[in-house]
Amino acid sequence: MIQEAVQSHSVPGGELIEAPYVRVVFQRGFPSDVGINGCRVDDVIRVAIDKLESYQLGELACEENAEALRYLKLARQTMAARIQRRKEQGVLNTMCPHTYERTEDENEDFSATGA
């Protein structure tokens, strides 16, 4: 299978990502400021999960699909944790980065929480 380059460019409102047989318009700007003009990464993950789950209900069910589903669901959970962290830090819907607190001792190779 030949992979062709993914192209990215702005379109009115959102950001367009195109590859052969794929066209995704991502949200550009905050919906509260510009309205909804595209999807989020979370939406693309959800579409991939839905497609693989449909495969798992039929003749295309296999362990590789199940494993891909596990990772996509982990990605979805990770994105939800990111949103929660941004809410807790008061930077959700801003361009400010959220902070990440390390739990391990910087001088030791183990977690300070025992995990």
Give the overall shape: extended
Question: Could you describe the largest sheet, including whether it forms a barrel?
Answer: 3 strands, antiparallel
Helix share, percent: 40-55%
What radius of gyration results from the CA coordinates?
A: 19 Å
How far is it from the N-terminal to the C-terminal residue, by CA? 42 Å
The average pLDDT score comes to: 85
Low-pLDDT stretches are none
Helix and strand composition category? alpha+beta
Please report which band the strand proportion falls in: under 5%, 5-15%, 15-25%, 25-35%, 35-45% or over 45%: 5-15%
Number of helices: 3
Domain count: 2
Order of helices and strands: EEEHHH
Spatial sequence of strands, sheet with the most strands: 1-2-3
Strand tally, please? 3
Topology at a glance:
Blueprint: E1 7-10, E2 15-19, E3 22-26, H1 31-34, H2 41-56, H3 63-88
Antiparallel strand pairs: 1-2, 2-3
Helix pairs in contact: 2-3
How does this structure look, described?
By secondary structure, the chain is an alpha+beta fold. Helix content is 40%, strand content 12%. Strands 1-2-3 form a three-stranded antiparallel sheet, with no helix packed on it.
